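ESCALATION

Customer reports they have been waiting on this structure for their group meeting. Please prioritize. Original submission:
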Amino acid sequence: MAEYLLQLLHGKSSGITLGSPGVEGYILGRSDEAIQYSPDVDLAVYEARERGVSRRHAALVQFSGEMHMVDLGSVNGTYVNGIRLVPDHPSRINPGDELRLGMLELILLKQKD
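Update from on-call: job pushed to the front of the queue and completed.
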């Protein structure tokens, strides 16, 4: 099973290791203690709130046998390599792609198969 790393594009973060997403995938966003919500991939440690990341910002999913990113109707948008995604429409992503959730810039890296 392939493993991926979501890492800050600029900075010295160890990143977040993820297995290949299934059909249900991973919700990316930020936790909110006020309503006791925590997404599958919590980006709060990367100053996500200050950078405009929604609680349920985007999802990484398996679609037609490939990894895709889906914007979940976020206020500040989801971008893949600088192109804003249309909400609720899967967009194929590959290792090395730059992802931006609001103003939080990440890169997707493949660790191993």
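Sent to customer with the following note: The chain has a mean pLDDT of 91.
Escalation resolved.
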